[in-house]
Write a structure and sequence with these properties.
ATP binding; nucleotide-binding; 25% strand; 563 residues; OB fold (Dihydrolipoamide Acetyltransferase, E2P); 5-stranded mixed beta barrel; ligase; Arc Repressor Mutant, subunit A; 18 helices
Length: 563
Amino acid sequence: MQLSEQELIRREKLEKLRALGINPYPAALYPLNATSASIKSNYEEGKQVIVAGRLMSRRIQGKASFAELQDSSGRIQVYFNRDEICTGEDKTLYNDVYKKLFDIGDIIGIEGELFTTQVGEKTIMVKKFTMLSKSLRPLPLPKKDAEGKIYDEFNDPELRYRQRYVDLVVNPKVKETFIKRTKITNSIREFYNEKGYLEVETPILQPIPGGATARPFLTHHNALNIPLYLRIANELYLKRLIVGGFDGVYEFSKDFRNEGMDRTHNPEFTVMELYVAYKDYNWMMDTTEKLLEKIAMDANGTTLITVGKHEIEFKAPYARVPILEAIKIHTGFDVAGMPEDELRVTAKKLGIEVDETMGIGKLIDEIFGEKCEKFYVQPTFITDYPKEMSPLTKEHRDNPALTERFELMVNGKELANAYSELNDPIDQRERFEDQLKLSEKGDDEAMFIDQDFLRALEYGMPPTSGIGIGIDRLVMLMTNNASIQEVLFFPQMRPEKKPLQLSDSEKVIFEILKAEKKMELDILKSKADLSNKAWDKAIKGITKQQLAKIFKESDILFVEILN
């Protein structure tokens, strides 16, 4: 591992601390009795406090120093005075340990007394300090020049997501997003718990990836010697619990879909699903409006939320628009009852890519997604989906070609999906069989037939309404974030590129190639000016690491840099 100059210096300081008998990583409990926030909210002049946190800044002025300590609740100023800390003749603790061996980013404990500075800053007079964890890497802290301009901010998205632990330390607003995320999930729990619904857990590893149309992740259970799937939804297990006699169950579930990644999709995501017996999708729309009003108030103190350039009002009621009507409004095509072949032609006329594996449901879904979805910025229930799009949904009571389903659209994206749940086992079997036909046509997102779920329905499931709410997208809305990666502590990332480990001879060749991109092998060897032995070893090393390739062109050997 190659270390920077600062990292080497910090390791030297680590050894000096140990040489002085100071353990840089002590094991004992540290007896905290305050935080930066509690000190400021309940300030008492002269009060004795014990706090801990990261050293984030300091201004050393001879025998005195002001510094900032950052803990989980914020920052507070601390004042180091040599004579307060070192009451005897030996000033080593201040002059050597604090001034020379401590660094920005170190986690330290402070025992001291509260006082207010002449400019009114609430501050801790340090009486005793303890090293709790020596930081061996410097924090990427922003700097401010004489004109007040900030530079060197830690704002590169890839670095921030990959090193979220650093992001949380140096960018306080990031922590606020995740605190608000917890408020949102707590708000949902409070709402459902007050209604007497039971929070449950269902399997993540499933023999059949049911409850949604999506491409699953496949794994293998060695002891049972069977294939298993990471769940794409928890719907079918929650419905089994309704069959078993629970009137209302919900779960915050981690779901997994082996599909694309973008600003609104991550392969691992969180969904809250709720199922309530003896209800229908009309009741669920009313209930969802009340839930989102509460969430907005609990998270932001208002139902009017700023999202990008829009102001979105979560106060009920929300508009309700049938999906076929929405398509007719925004495309001019009436696709109600349209045969599959004609629907495919219509989709092509609208500039939508289609293929032979797509049935009626997929075609309508694509048309709505491409041509209509973006218009629904304010919360809108898109209702009454065709039966082909909804294999788990009850047939519409007024139109057998449709189902009693809605999707909640907000800011041009789906936030929730809900049904009057299909509880007719014979109808459900036929719908699964239709999905099987789609699978045979090549649709790798079509549903599997879950025989055990069908068996459960045959014992009888009461009329039920269910909903799934995308928690990540909900948090994006409530925190005004345009990217799902901003609301996940650790979003999925491509493997981190390892820094190049090149010998001195390899560096010489690589630098020449970077400038030329492609050149004759003999010319490169001449420019590198290495011994034959060093040349042979270096050119082999560069090609082995796939940094360059050697190839023949018109009987001449060339070297070309890759990537």
